[in-house]
Amino acid sequence: xxxxxxxxxxxxxxxxxxxxxxxxxxxxxxxxxxxxxxxxxxxxxxxxxxxxxxxxxxxxxxxxxxxxxxxxxxxxxxxxxxxxxxxxxxxxxxxxxxxxxxxxxxxxxxxxxxxxxxxxxxxxxxxxxxxxxxxxxxxxxxxxxxxxxxxxxxxxxxxxxxx
Amino acid sequence: xxxxxxxxxxxxxxxxxxxxxxxxxxxxxxxxxxxxxxxxxxxxxxxxxxxxxxxxxxxxxxxxxxxxxxxxxxxxxxxxxxxxxxxxxxxxxxxxxxxxxxxxxxxxxxxxxxxxxxxxxxxxxxxxxxxxxxxxxxxxxxxxxxxxxxxxxxxxxxxxxxxxxxxxxxxxxxxxxxxxxxxxxxxxxxxxxxxxxxxxxxxxxxxxxxxxxxxxxxxxxxxxxxxxxxxxxxxxxxxxxxxxxxxxxxxxxxxxxxxxxxxxxxxxxxxxxxxxxxxxxxxxxxxxxxxxxxxxxxxxxxxxxxxxxxxxxxxxxxxxxxxxxxxxxxxxxxxxxxxxxxxxxxxxxxxxxxxxxxxxxxxxxxxxxxxxxxxxxxxxxxxxxxxxxxxxxxxxxxxxxxxxxxxxxxxxxxxxx
Lengths: 163, 417
Ligand code: SF4
Fold this sequence. Notes:
Chain A is α/β, with parallel strands linked by helices. Helices cover 31% and strands 19% of the residues of chain A. Chain B starts with a helix and ends in a 10-residue tail after the last helix.
């Protein structure tokens, strides 16, 4: 995980559910690239075409609510989303993201579509380059940092199995 | 001092006590996967190059089976192949199975005090029997298949007490929709919801499962109802292994306590596009419907079918409306057949199908066209959930679904009395 990133914002509201992120009819593959082609297809047509690698999603409350489909964070990774910042996350989406290596940050940020934000994961700071405003956030609990440091859940389990 | 969640997570992680907020690594009793979440989990599992914890794994194809197309056939096949390869006995082929959560309960995997995870968000249903059960992603399910263990953040618990006697045609669905309408779709985010009160203890198990099932619709990690005689009776003769019921201490620490008067709860409907957009069914009488759907892990049990049949008996579904009935499992289907319920549905011109998730997630067998409206006994009414992005889903109890099918508009069954 890069310690600092900079990305163009896609702004979303509250309660963005997993059916919006990836409609169920596409749940016939686990491939992030394939899934990415249909990300937000119903609610933000053109998202897939316009999104660039390194873009950032900034959203309101309860992002990723709904189903447990890991296809949702996978689809976002497939598009190249570098981080999802939201006021709060639905818990399964949050866990899934961490486990597959999509950075998620809980933070209230004012940013509109197309603005650029800098995210400093270590310093716990997000800066909107357009407005100049800064927003602090708490970094993850120690256990989860350890999990990410060891390379995510897959690597963590591998280590356990070797013991 | 401790809640049910704290006690189960302490026991399973080999600790005397744990508190909300703590992260523990716990031994899981069962991990369940379905045909949608299975494939990605199997792919991850193969990377571990190890043997699975066979006895803990339950594989249930239900979302797109019988297969709706070639891609879904491949997914279902991946599950069948995985089960064969590793000799996993708990695999339920169609014809033996049904909707995963209903089956987990029917087959006796779920008991009070157990820790169960499933790669499906409605795994929280099992809390209706006093288990701690929650949904996880595919990677995590793979990790549990390999190690039998997983990390959990011990959740805070909210206490809901519903006292009093429920009115005619008021079901578990109305209780949980009322609560979600009140607290919102993130009102229980990360937390366990525990349910108490005379209204809850008087409910049959099926309605309790509906309530626990929809805890996730309030963002909850688990929805737990303390086990009582009804649960023990149900498990008698079907349970796998032994179990010990776990109860919260009288002085357990709750993050919130909410109280409801059962007499004030009415047949309730959640309007599109969130389960929190609730209104009394009686106020939505002008909403015309194209389809009425009865089924799913939320309301596809025999008690639900009985309720709908009681309302439909001897009547015909409104011209121009279609009704689809999908019993949640083979056992429910058989029972409905024996009781003559299927005949009631068919005489009313409803379409009856074999057990599957089907149209609940917009899969097939009842997908909605642009602009169509469905009143559904399922649990989600998100944009495009059951079909076209411009279709609409109204969530309701089996009683409201049946009454609406007769009138062609959303209807409180009490109106028909
Ligand atoms: S019936 Fe619907 S909610 Fe239940 S497991 Fe199937 S798709 Fe999910």
